[in-house]
Write the structure tokens for this entry.
Amino acid sequence: MRRFAGLLAALAVAGTLAAAGGLATRDHYFVREGTPFFWLGDTNWALFNLYSPAEAEQYLEHRARQGFNVVNVMMIYSGGPGRQIIVENTEGAAPFVGGNPATPNEAFFKNVDRVVAAARARNVILAVMPCGGSSGAMVKKLKVFTEANVRAYGRWLGRRYKGAPNLIWVNGFDLKSSEYPEITAALATGLREGDGGSHLITFHPGGGNSSSYFHTERWLAYNTIQTWSDYWRIHPLVLADYCRLPVKPVVLAEGAYEAGPEYPTRPITPLIVRKQAWWAYLAGGFHTYGHNDMWRKNPTWRESLDSPGALQMGILKQVLAAREWWTLVPDQSVIWTGAGSDRELNVAARSTRGNLAIVYLSARNSVSIDLGKITAAEEVRATWVNPESGESVVEGIFANAGRRAFTPSRKSEDAVLLLEAANEQVRQ
């Protein structure tokens, strides 16, 4: 990476700046206009290409009502594994004249403008991959993007969308972070030259990889992880990036899609969807959900808007957003015994204020909890939350010393245990 340091050192603005109303980073989390921003992402890679303007608005309206506030999108939709590469939008416009990124097609980008504006009207941020994905199809296979043209393309994009606060630029090509670093550096430079630092930039790696290969680069505002089918690796991978210096937020941006058919670990059930999300948040990161029918725009995409996994992400957000989630730090020592492992890992985080600990049980098993982690009050209120339904039941109020065994009810496949200072009220 050092050989590209000189190229990027010339950039005047670090990647943690943001346009007015946009995102910035603070320690391990994001802020928007100075307020902690709870990232709940969704994935719709084909939003600029396969969705008509009316369908895009329908999608964005629905997701905004459900509490999603970030959406993964490809500027050029690359089809996905085993699928046809489709670059035109529903009006037949291709992104480039003659297939050359040096000559963007105004007709295509007018539709992008419409979608960006529709998302902004609903307070939704678009995390946009300018070079597409699908294992680097546009870089590795078709060589549409090269070191010779990608800097100018990035500069053009940066200038065009400099004033749009609801964008994040997602460098990368769905490949290992170490592949094509010269194109990565050139795109980052072009984007910064174009927007002057108005937007955060991250990097989207291929399955089983993290953007932290570029962790010390100034343009990388936060880390992005893709696990693909190996969803049980989420907690250790997110935790590893959480612990890196300098401190940056980390997002599980692509796990296993709900109902995805291509995984060796299928079926990807709502339980697996919940595991992925709770593991990511309690490891100190954030999560981006996805449904197979949505990002591919299968005929049943409208039905998938209200899939169990999507609705249960709303429950997760309600639980965490009602508390000072930004004070949480991952701490497995909250679980004295019964942490489990692998696909049945139980995880915990506690607040630095000493008033809260959250434990996620990925299976119905008993755990022994160190109640002494709640230091802000003499008594601890223990509450069970069903992550499928949102139903909550107070287990009791206990002294904040010693260890106590907790066993979830049999109503759900997994469970969330909230341990809170008994003298504090929870925001609703």
